[in-house]
Write a structure and sequence with these properties.
Layout: E1 4-15, E2 18-29, E3 33-37, H1 44-51, E4 58-66, E5 69-70, H2 76-82, E6 84-87, E7 94-98, H3 99-111, H4 117-130, E8 141-142, H5 148-162, E9 166-170, H6 178-193, E10 197-201, E11 215-220, E12 223-228
Parallel strand pairs: 3-10, 3-11, 6-9, 9-10
Antiparallel strand pairs: 1-2, 1-4, 4-5, 7-8, 11-12
Helix pairs in contact: 3-5, 5-6
Length: 234
Amino acid sequence: MSTNLLEINGLYVKVGEKEILKGIDLAIAQGETHVIMGPNGAGKSTLGHTLLANPKYEVTAGTIFFDGRDVTAETTDKRAKSGIFMTFQDPIPVAGITLGGFTKNALEQKTGKRIKMWDFKKSMKHALELLNMNEAYTERDLNVGFSGGEKKKAEIFQLLMLNPKLAILDETDSGLDVDAVKTVSNGIQEFQKNGGTLLIITHSTRILDALNVDKTHILANGKIIHTGDRSLVD
């Protein structure tokens, strides 16, 4: 039986009539951090969206196993509840629901248990301090009026609160200044130190400076063309 948390075999994916991924094989063990790099249009974000079952991306061949189960045909909500989390290049604003309310509801959906607001506020204190976020952030509508840095910090806040089995970070450092990158990186480090498994999609090396990287994969033209250790990042 495989000991990998995520195992992708012969994955082909298309959007409309265009084939984007052309036979991806990838295995990530529990607690590992893998980095995906490559040029624009190579299929990096497509891989992330496919792992979370975005209906825009159609799997035409291959399998996705997560935590010992074949999830190739599972819907987004089922994959999320099983422990897959993803950040986005440009998180969308959601009016009418606060960051705190959204995160609390997601945590209740994941655990299947109601959480008292007092207990939730106690548990989020450490995450807020780590990300230099005031509790007032959690009372604001999700991503509404947030700056780019605030959106990214809000996502890492959700990551720390939900503590998923696998976190897919898609260009999390995109558009961030040096201070914001450091703050976001602190949150990712915390997740990593607690045994979290990461798949980081990035063009930049800044967010990787303080992280342990087990494997680096170069994706080009829909295929992984080279795999190496951290030194491949440079």
